[in-house]
């Protein structure tokens, strides 16, 4: 079967779920990545220090960590599709509210509250897709959903380049955030065309017949504790490294590399193109090589590449070329994470387990933007990004080595 033929082999319900979850993740990424683009303007407009600006990024991610855990529990109780609709409406509304903030404190509050929906969207969407897709296509499908992040990032970069080229900076950042209402339109598609996974419906039927309903503490029971902790550690490494890079990269390119808005957009376009390719390759590798080898490959590649990009005195041309492999390795590991977590947790606690593990990683990884901003006051911003990101990817590799391989595992309504 050809590389692209797997999509045509999907059933109608699988294809609809893939399109809905990917669309949600595209628009989610667009909303989230906008902050990194407007960060220099906000710092200048309201005279915000790098540490305080980094703290806002951290607060959003911390809120998203709690939101993802709660949304995972909600998905186990009221359903994956309904929870996905709620979270999409939540982050779309609060991203739009950011557009009318009149002070840094107001923006801080709106951005942090938006994080609840941002974290919840991945928790509900990845579980939904992981349960709908058959085992032999699960890695490719969930990885394809993850590639939507690069598409959303690219949309945010295009909007940034256009808005800041045509409008004064004091207005352009508000216009960008106003585009955050767009994800709300996806809810209409979800309500009409996407149904709950069969394995979830079967699990709910067992509960209705007298089965035991899962509690949030069940993911810390002795039989799941090791899995929960190692998955949380993996999420910490992957997301700590990723957010250390992406939150501060536009500021690094404009501040330390002294690039214009248009040149920054070019560098980011190369990085995003590499990121998109990395997601798709990771999806393919997750099904071909397995989940653990894919994580190790991307963790080692990220460790090496981020140090080269941020610490070596490279010329502008070399940095432009290295942006593609940096985006490739920093993103590709996420393609295997969704199916891996889906296969590691039983159906009755899958939303809670997957939501907690991924979003605990997001919460602890959320400290990295703040710490990078703090350390940038003592070292260069490039050195701060490189050191924190490299350490995070080392953590990701350790967790991958300690977890079992799950490729091809069938899901049961247990």
Question: Which helices and strands appear, and what pairs or packs with what?
Answer:
Layout: H1 5-9, H2 12-45, H3 50-78, H4 80-98, H5 104-132, H6 135-166, H7 169-178, H8 186-193, H9 198-208, H10 225-255, H11 261-288, H12 291-311, H13 316-332, H14 334-344, H15 350-365, H16 367-375, H17 381-402
Helix pairs in contact: 2-5, 2-6, 2-7, 2-8, 2-10, 3-4, 3-5, 3-15, 3-16, 4-5, 4-8, 5-14, 5-15, 6-7, 6-11, 6-14, 10-14, 10-15, 10-16, 10-17, 11-12, 11-13, 12-13, 12-14, 12-17, 14-15, 16-17
Keywords summarizing the entry:
Growth Hormone, Chain: A, mainly alpha, 0% strand, 17 helices, 414 residues, globular
Give the name of the CATH architecture.
Up-down Bundle
- The CATH topology corresponds to Growth Hormone, Chain: A
Structural class category: mainly alpha
Strand content range: under 5%
Find the count of extended strands (DSSP E, 2+ residues).
0
Helix content: over 70%
Radius of gyration: 20 Å
Question: Which CATH C-level class is it?
Answer: Mainly Alpha
Tertiary shape: globular
Number of domains: 1
Instruction: Enumerate the spans where pLDDT stays under 50 for 5 or more consecutive residues.
Output: none
How far apart lie the N and C ends?
A: 33 Å
Within CATH, the superfamily carries the name MFS general substrate transporter like domains
Largest sheet: none
Summarize model confidence as the mean pLDDT: 84
Provide a count of the helices.
17
Order of H and E elements = HHHHHHHHHHHHHHHHH
